[in-house]
Amino acid sequence: MPAASIRARARAEMINEIKAIARRHLAAEGANLSLRAVARDMGMVSSAIYRYFPSRDELLTALIVDGYHALGDAVQAGDAEVTDRTDLRGRWLAACHAVRRWALAQPAEYALLFGSPVPGYAAPQETTVAAVRTPTVLIGILADGFATGALSDPGDLPGPVQADLAAVRDGFFPGVPEALLSRGATGWMSCFGAVSFELFGQLDGLIQAREEYFDHQMRRVADLIGLPG
User: Model confidence over 130-185: pLDDT tens digits?
Assistant: First the structure.
């Protein structure tokens, strides 16, 4: 193997190890990451880690991008499990349950993506492409229904809202009517709101049958956004 390839592989392995240790810090301490602490756990001098991540923010960005992609993979796989692609409601429920399963399995990463903002950190544009993967699946279910005629354009929106959603549609969801996109956004926010309430403790002492309650909620949301079934 050429020396350049060996160096590239070694660097990739080191980056993966740094991120793995940083995720353990997330689970134990939240998003208050310290490059020095990560370096110490790796047995490195603190200056060495800066060759891989020049700042805490760059490490956070890498973890956020990885998290969005991992969530996107899980949601795409959940949607793909429904073999009848015309079963819009079944696809919606499968995708929403995939969001919940991933969040419960990766609570620290979910909190990094959807919890309180990290003080002093501003997410760069590169996180947007990864972040849009999950809503693309959820809204894509409605888009498929519109393309086949199973769903229709639900109609009017307030003028300023229509203008905003037209810009979003042109950037990310071409061909989806603004009012249908609005319904998809309502479903997306309802799904993540339900997951966040469970994960961050708002249901503690209130709801014991968590999975059944979530399924009930997502079925009601499916009614709200007009999915047949």
Answer: 999 999 999 999 999 999 999 998 888 898 999 999 999 898 888 889 999 999 99
